[in-house]
Amino acid sequence: MEFLDLPPMLGAAGTVRLPGSKSISNRVLLLAALAEGETEIRDLLLSDDVERMLDALQTLGVCWERNGDSLDYRVRGVGGPFPVKHAELFLGNAGTAFRPLTAALALSGGEYRLSGVPRMHERPIGDLVDALRALGADIMCTANEGYPPLHLRPASIRSGGVVRVRGDVSSQFLTALLMALPLTGVETTVEVVGELISKPYIRITLELMARFGVQVEQHGWERFVVPGGARYRSPGTVFVEGDASSASYFLAAGAIGGGPLRVEGVGRASIQGDVRFAEALEQLGARITMGDNWIEAAAPAEGGLKAFDLDLNHIPDAAMTLAVAALFADGPCRLRNIASWRVKETDRIAAMAIELRKVGAQIEEGEDYLVVTPPARLQPAAIDTYDDHRMAMCFSLVTLGGCRLRINDPRCVNKTFPGYFDVFGQVARAVPVVAIDGPSASGKGTVAARVAEALGWHCLDSGSLYRLVALAAMRAGIALDDEAGVAAIAADLPARFENGLILLAGEDVSDAIRSETCSVGASKVAVLGQVREALLDRQRDYRIGPGLVAEGRDIGSVVFPDAGVKVFLTASAESRAERRYKQLMEKGMPANIQSLLKDLQERDARDAARPVAPLVKLPDAVLLDTTERSVDEAVAFVLDLVRAGG
Ligand SMILES: Nc1ncnc2c1ncn2[C@@H]1O[C@H](COP(=O)(O)OP(=O)(O)O)[C@@H](O)[C@H]1O
Ligand SMILES: Nc1ccn([C@H]2C[C@H](O)[C@@H](COP(=O)(O)OP(=O)(O)O)O2)c(=O)n1
C-alpha cells in the first residue's frame, strides 16, 4: 500500500488559493450541458469526481473543451434532454455526478446504464429512484434494490403534479430531482418527506439553477415548485468559487497551528454552506476574519481550542475537520446530528472513531454522533483513509500537535483536491532537521552536539543506538549476525539518554559503548535490515520542536530524507584515526593507532558497501571535509547553512 509520512509540524501560517468547489463544479457542468447556449466556466475544479462528470457528459453527446492547461472550460449546451440515447456510464465514487445524472437521464428518454466503484454500489439511491419511478421513469437496480448500478429505459413521463422525495438520507436526491425537472417543461411540485438534511447544499442548487434561468419557488424546506415552461439558458460566464469544504482544513490549521492562515476563493459572499465552518471554529475560540472572497483563521488569543458540543447537520463535510480539531480542545467534544456521515464515501463515523483512537483519543460513537476526548499526548500512527479524501485531509492536522503521522493511500485526495499535501506542506512548518552523515571519527558527534547547543535544538547520536544494540546483544549472548534475534533486542531496547549519560537497563554504559569491541559490533549489527527498521521510529521520535540535529550514516537518506540541511562530514582516514586515538587516550582507554586506522577503514568499507542504507554522500548533501578544519570552523559552517535556510 502506498503511504505518505508527514513530519511533526511546529505550526501553520500563510495563504492558500483554494481549488474550485466540487459541489458547484459538477452542478454547473450539468446545468451548462442542459442549457441553451455556450457557457464559459472559469476556475473549474480539476479532480476525479469532476473528471467523471466531464467524461459522462462527453459520452452523452455534450461538447466541451478546455482552454489549454487552464481551469477554464467551454460547454456547448444541448438545450434539453441528452441527444445520445444509449450509453453506459462509469461514475466512480462521485455522488455529485451519479445522483443528478440519474435524474436527468431518467427524464431523457433513452437507455442508460450507470455504475461506479464498489463503494458507490453500497451508497443508497432508492429514495431518488422511487421519486423518479413515481414520475413514470423505468429504472432497475440491477444488483440490489435501492442501490446502484442502475439500468434506465425509455418510459413515458407523467409530467406535472406533485412528486415526493425523502430528504433525510441525502440532500443530493432533492438536488438531483430539482435540477432534472425543468426537462419536463411542466410545473412540478416537489415535497420533501422527512426532515431535510444538509440544507445549505439545496441553497447552492437553487442559486445555480436561478443563474441558469430557472427560478424555483421555495416554501420553507418542505415544498419546492419548479415552474412550467422553464428552460435552462446559459448565463454566459460562470466563476466557480473555491471549495469551502477544502477551506476547512486550512482554517483549522490556522486555528490549531497559530496562523494567521488565509484561504482565498471563498468568503462572506460565498453560496456554499460550508463557509459556516468558520463560525464553528470561532465557537472553539479561534480568531476569524472574513472578506467577500477570503477567510482567515488564527489560534485563540490565549490558550488552546475550547471543547464544544455542536449540531453539525448543516456542514456535514466540513464537520469531519472538527472531529480532528477536537484533538486539540481542552475537553471532550460532541459532534451531533451527523448521521449522513454513514452513507458517504465510507461510513465516516465508524472510520473516524477507529482512526482517532489510533492517535490516542477516547471515542464514544453513536448512530448519529461522536464524542471525542483528546489524549494527553498524541501518538504517531498509520492512518487508514478508506478511499475517502476527507479522511486523508483531516488527519494531516494531527501533525500540528508535533506528532508525525503516516497517511495510507494518500492519493484518495484526488477526488476533490489533487496536490493537497503539497499545499499543506507549504503552509505547515515541519520541525526542522539538520542531518549530519559521514564516516567514523569525522567529527559528526562533536559538531552535531555543538550545533544543537547553539540553536537550542535536540540532538540525536544515532550511532549510539547501534552501539547499544550491539552491547545488549552481546550481553544477551546473541550472535551479531542473528538478524531476527538482534532485531528483537533493537525493537525493545531498554535504553535512555539522561543528563549526558547513556543508560542501558538503568546502568550507565556511556563509556562501555565506546570500546572498540562495541564499535566493531555496532558496524556488524548495522548491516542488518531488520535491525535498522526496528530503530527507525525510535530515531524519528527525536524530531521534536524547536528542531533536531541528528548524526549518523543514513540520517539524510533514510531517517529524515526531508531534512532541510544535509551535511556529509568527512576527513582523511589518517586524521580520523589520529582523532580517535587521542579521544581514547583521553578516556584512558588503550589504543593502537595502526590497528585503529585498519579498523576504521574496514568499517568505512562495510558501512559504504552494505546493501541497506549504505553510507553515501547524497546529491543534496553539502560536503564538509574537516581534514584541514577545526571543530569551530566546522560548527560555524553548519550554522551558516542552517541560517541560510538550508
Ligand atoms: N574538525 C576537527 N578537527 C579536529 N578534531 C576534530 C574535528 N572534528 C572532531 N574532532 C575530534 O575527533 C574526535 C572524533 O569525533 P566524533 O565527533 O566522535 O566523530 P564521529 O561522531 O564522526 O565518530 C573527537 O575527539 C573530536 O573532538
Ligand atoms: N545512522 C547510523 C549511525 C551509525 N551506524 C553504524 C555505523 C557505525 O559502524 C556504528 C556506530 O556508529 P557511530 O557513529 O557511533 O560510530 P563512530 O563513532 O563514527 O565510529 O553504527 C549506522 O549504520 N547508521
Automatic annotation (TrEMBL):
<feature type="binding site">
    <location>
        <position position="22"/>
    </location>
    <ligand>
        <name>3-phosphoshikimate</name>
    </ligand>
</feature>
<dbReference type="InterPro" id="IPR001986">
    <property type="entry name" value="Enolpyruvate_Tfrase_dom"/>
</dbReference>
<keyword id="KW-0057">Aromatic amino acid biosynthesis</keyword>
<comment type="subunit">
    <text>Monomer.</text>
</comment>
<feature type="binding site">
    <location>
        <position position="95"/>
    </location>
    <ligand>
        <name>phosphoenolpyruvate</name>
    </ligand>
</feature>
<keyword id="KW-0547">Nucleotide-binding</keyword>
<comment type="similarity">
    <text>Belongs to the cytidylate kinase family. Type 1 subfamily.</text>
</comment>
<keyword id="KW-0963">Cytoplasm</keyword>
<dbReference type="GO" id="GO:0003866">
    <property type="term" value="F:3-phosphoshikimate 1-carboxyvinyltransferase activity"/>
</dbReference>
<feature type="active site" description="Proton acceptor">
    <location>
        <position position="317"/>
    </location>
</feature>
<feature type="binding site">
    <location>
        <position position="172"/>
    </location>
    <ligand>
        <name>phosphoenolpyruvate</name>
    </ligand>
</feature>
<dbReference type="InterPro" id="IPR011994">
    <property type="entry name" value="Cytidylate_kinase_dom"/>
</dbReference>
<comment type="function">
    <text>Catalyzes the transfer of the enolpyruvyl moiety of phosphoenolpyruvate (PEP) to the 5-hydroxyl of shikimate-3-phosphate (S3P) to produce enolpyruvyl shikimate-3-phosphate and inorganic phosphate.</text>
</comment>
<dbReference type="GO" id="GO:0016301">
    <property type="term" value="F:kinase activity"/>
</dbReference>
<feature type="binding site">
    <location>
        <position position="170"/>
    </location>
    <ligand>
        <name>3-phosphoshikimate</name>
    </ligand>
</feature>
<feature type="binding site">
    <location>
        <position position="390"/>
    </location>
    <ligand>
        <name>phosphoenolpyruvate</name>
    </ligand>
</feature>
<dbReference type="InterPro" id="IPR003136">
    <property type="entry name" value="Cytidylate_kin"/>
</dbReference>
<dbReference type="Pfam" id="PF02224">
    <property type="entry name" value="Cytidylate_kin"/>
</dbReference>
<comment type="similarity">
    <text>Belongs to the EPSP synthase family.</text>
</comment>
<dbReference type="InterPro" id="IPR027417">
    <property type="entry name" value="P-loop_NTPase"/>
</dbReference>
<keyword id="KW-0028">Amino-acid biosynthesis</keyword>
<feature type="domain" description="Enolpyruvate transferase">
    <location>
        <begin position="13"/>
        <end position="423"/>
    </location>
</feature>
<keyword id="KW-0808">Transferase</keyword>
<keyword id="KW-0418">Kinase</keyword>
<keyword id="KW-0067">ATP-binding</keyword>
<feature type="domain" description="Cytidylate kinase">
    <location>
        <begin position="434"/>
        <end position="643"/>
    </location>
</feature>
<feature type="binding site">
    <location>
        <position position="317"/>
    </location>
    <ligand>
        <name>3-phosphoshikimate</name>
    </ligand>
</feature>
<dbReference type="InterPro" id="IPR036968">
    <property type="entry name" value="Enolpyruvate_Tfrase_sf"/>
</dbReference>
<feature type="binding site">
    <location>
        <position position="344"/>
    </location>
    <ligand>
        <name>3-phosphoshikimate</name>
    </ligand>
</feature>
<feature type="binding site">
    <location>
        <position position="27"/>
    </location>
    <ligand>
        <name>3-phosphoshikimate</name>
    </ligand>
</feature>
<feature type="binding site">
    <location>
        <position position="171"/>
    </location>
    <ligand>
        <name>3-phosphoshikimate</name>
    </ligand>
</feature>
<feature type="binding site">
    <location>
        <position position="172"/>
    </location>
    <ligand>
        <name>3-phosphoshikimate</name>
    </ligand>
</feature>
<dbReference type="Pfam" id="PF00275">
    <property type="entry name" value="EPSP_synthase"/>
</dbReference>
<feature type="binding site">
    <location>
        <position position="23"/>
    </location>
    <ligand>
        <name>3-phosphoshikimate</name>
    </ligand>
</feature>
<feature type="binding site">
    <location>
        <begin position="438"/>
        <end position="446"/>
    </location>
    <ligand>
        <name>ATP</name>
    </ligand>
</feature>
<feature type="binding site">
    <location>
        <position position="123"/>
    </location>
    <ligand>
        <name>phosphoenolpyruvate</name>
    </ligand>
</feature>
<feature type="binding site">
    <location>
        <position position="348"/>
    </location>
    <ligand>
        <name>phosphoenolpyruvate</name>
    </ligand>
</feature>
<feature type="binding site">
    <location>
        <position position="198"/>
    </location>
    <ligand>
        <name>3-phosphoshikimate</name>
    </ligand>
</feature>
<dbReference type="InterPro" id="IPR006264">
    <property type="entry name" value="EPSP_synthase"/>
</dbReference>
<protein>
    <recommendedName>
        <fullName>Multifunctional fusion protein</fullName>
        <ecNumber>2.5.1.19</ecNumber>
        <ecNumber>2.7.4.25</ecNumber>
    </recommendedName>
</protein>
<dbReference type="InterPro" id="IPR013792">
    <property type="entry name" value="RNA3'P_cycl/enolpyr_Trfase_a/b"/>
</dbReference>
<dbReference type="InterPro" id="IPR023193">
    <property type="entry name" value="EPSP_synthase_CS"/>
</dbReference>
